[in-house]
Amino acid sequence: MTNPFQSKNLQCKDFSGQDLSFQDFSHADIRGTNFNKAILVGANFRQAKAGLPTSWVIGLAIASLASALLAGLVSGYASALLSNLWVDQAARITFGVFTIALVIILFAIILVFGLGSVLIVFAESVAALLIAIIALVPNTQANLAVDVQFTALVLAGTLAGVGNMAVGIATARLIQLWKPAFLVGFVAFFGVLVGVLLGTIEVAGYLIATPVSLAAIVIGGYVGWAAIAGKTKYQLIRLLATILVTKSGTNFRGANLTDAIFDQALLKSTDFRGATLIRTSWFQSRQLDQARTEGTYLAHPRVRQLAVTKLARGESFDRYDLQGINLKNACLTDTSFVGANLSEANLQEADLSRAKLVQAQLYRAELSNACLTGAYIQDWAISPDTKLEGVCCDYIYMRLPTADDPDPWRKPDNRQETFREGDFADFIAPIIKTLGLYKSQTVDMRNVANQFKTLDLFHHGGLDPSAAAIAIRQLAENHPEAELELFALEGRGHEKIRLQAKVSGNANQSELYQEYFQTYSRIKSLPFSDLQMMLAGVEEKDERIRSLEKLLENALTQPRFYVETYTEGDYVMSQSKGNVNISGVQGNVSGVAAAGENQTMTGVALGAISGSVTNTINRIPESSDPSQPSLKELLTQLQKAIEIESELPDEDKVEALEQVKTLAEAGQNPEDSGLKKAAKTAMKVLKGTVSGLPEVTKVVAECAKLLPAIAALLAFV
C-alpha cells in the first residue's frame, strides 16, 4: 500500500482537526501546511520541510526591505531636526547639546540593556523632564516649546529608526534573504540620505545629521542580528520577527503530537504553541529556534538544545520543567536534574550515569534499559507506572553526600560489590509495590523514605535459613547503635533472596554488610550438629530466632515471595497472589506473600471461597440503624464487584475474597483486637490488589467508595 503523504508536496494543504495518527510525512514538503488541532499521535515527520511557502518568502523579503527604508527615512529626518537645534540660533545650542546627550544615552541603553523595561523607563523619564521644562522654566525664549518638541521628535524618530532596522534585519535573517546585511543596509542608507535631505535646513547640519542617523541604522542592524543570534536582551525584536515569519508558516498550533517524530526535520517558521508535545522526538531537527514555541518546554533555549542534541554531560537542569521531553538514547552522564519535572519523559536507553535525580519527578516516565549506575535518587518521585524494566545499574546512591553525612547511602551496601543482573529490579520492586499500595492514600513515600536507612542483603544461589537467622541476630547484638530491624524479604525460591533491614542514620552499611556475610559464611560452613547446637543456644536468649528461621524456610518453598512489615513488626502480605500459612511459629510472623505467576493457589477454588465469604458475611449482626448502609450490605457489594470484574485474574479474585472474609470475621467480633489488626492488613492488601488496574475499572471505583465506609464501620479510621 502506497503512503499518501511520504515525500509528497503538501504545501498550503489544510489538515486542521483531522485524525492523522501514525501517518508517515517523512521527507514531505509541508511549508504553509495547516495542522491546527490535528491528532498526530505517533506521526512521522522525519526530514520533512516545514516553514513558509515561496510566495510568502518573497512578500516578507519586500517587507523587510520596506522596513529598512522606513528606518532610514525616520532616523535621517529625526537627525536633521537635531541638527537644526545647533545651526539656527546660538541660544538654542544649549538645548542641542542636551538633546544629543540624550541620543547618546539612548544608544548606550539599547546596547547595554536591550529594548526592554529599562528603555521604557528612560523614555518615560525624558518625557516627564521635557514637560517639566515647558511648565516650570519661564518662557523668555519664544522657541522653547518648539525646542522641546524637536527633542521629543528626535528621540522618538531615532528609536523608531533603530527598531525598524532591527526588525528588518531580523526578518531578513529568518527568511534567509540573500546577503541580508548588504541588501537591507543599502536600502536603509538610501532612506537616510532622503530623510536628511528632507529635514535639514542649513548645509552645516549635514555634519551632525548624517553621523547620528547612520549610527541609529548601524545599531539597529546590530540589534536585529544579535536578536536572531540568541541575545536574550533583544528577545522582543526576535519575537516580533518570529511572529511575522510564522504567520503563514506550517501550523501545528493545538495539535496532539504525542510520540511524533521530527528527527532531522527543517522547522523554521513553524507554530507549535498549545501543541501536546509528550515524548515528541526532535533529534537533530534544524532551525527549531526559529519556530514559535511559547508555552512549551522548547521555549527555553537550553532545553531546546538538549532536545535536539540529546547531549548534556555535566550540565544542570535543576528545577526545570521537562515534562514529556524525549531523551531516548541521550548521553546525560553527571547531569543534574535536582527537583526537575521529568514526568512522562522518554529516557529509554539513556545514559544517566552519576546523574542527580534528587527530588526529580518521574511519574509515568519511561526508563527502560536506561543506565543508572552511580545515580543519586534521593526522594525521587516515581509511581507504579514509571517503567524501569531492564535498567542497567551497577550501584546507586540513595542520598547526596553532605558535610554532616558524607556517606551517600550506596546500594549495594558493600562498596566492594556491584548489583548482579536483576538485582536492581529486585531492589526497586518493593518500592514500586509500596507505591501501588499507597496509591489511593494521602501518603508521601518520599517522607517515609527519609525516616530510616536500609541495609539490603542479597543472597545469590540459595540461603541457609538457620545461618541467616543467627547471623542477623549476632549483627544486631554486636552493633546495638545501628538499631537493626529486619522488615522485608523478597525472592524467587532458592534462586535469589533479599533481606532488608532498617538501620540508624549513623550506621556504616558497608561494614555491616561485610560483617553479616562473614558471619553467615562461617556459620553456614559449620557441621549440621554444631549449627543446631548454636541455634538452640541463641534461641534461649531470643525466641524470635526460631520464628525468623521458620519464616525463611516457608518462604523458600514458594516460587516467588514478598514479605513486608507495616506496623508493630508484623509480617503481612502485600500485592500477594497466593497465601502461605506458617504453623507452629512463635513471635510476630503471620504470613508470607507468594507471587509466582504460575503458582497453583493453596486456598480453595473460586466458587468455594465465594460461598465461604457469603456465609461469613451473613453471620454479621444486623445494623441497629436501618437508615444507614450496614457492614453486611457493603461487604456484599464488595464481594460482587470482585467476582464480576473481568480485569481481575482468578487467583487475584481468590486472594481478594479471602480479604473480604477477614473483614467479615472482624465485623462479627468488633472487639477482638487481633481480628481488627487482621482487618487493617486486609484493607491494605485489597488496595494493593486493585492498584494495578486501570482507574476506569469498576472494581477500582467500588473499592474507592466502599473501603472507606467499611473502615469507618469497623472503627479503625
Derived structural class = mainly alpha
Shape: elongated
Number of strands: 10
Radius of gyration: 37 Å
Quaternary structure classification: single chain
**Count of the domains:** 4
Question: For the terminal residues, how far apart are their CA atoms?
Answer: 62 Å
**Weakly predicted, low-confidence segments:** 434-450, 566-605
The major sheet is characterized as: 6 strands, antiparallel
Helix content: 40-55%
Portion in beta strands: 5-15%
Mean pLDDT: 78
Number of helices: 19
Spell out the helices and strands N to C.
HHHHHHHEEHEEHHEHEEHHHEEEHHHHH
Q: Describe it for me?
A:
This protein has helices at residues 54-87, 93-113, 117-136, 144-174, 180-199, 206-229, 235-246, 301-309, 423-437, 445-449, 465-478, 509-524, 528-541, 544-556, 606-618, 631-644, 650-668, 673-691, 698-713, and strands at residues 250-251, 270-271, 396-397, 410-411, 453-460, 485-492, 496-503, 561-565, 571-573, 593-594. The two termini are 62 Å apart. Strand 6 and strand 7 (496-503) form a beta hairpin. The chain is 46% helix and 6% strand. Helix 1 packs antiparallel against helix 6, helix 2 packs antiparallel against helix 3 (117-136) and helix 9 (423-437) crosses helix 18 (673-691).
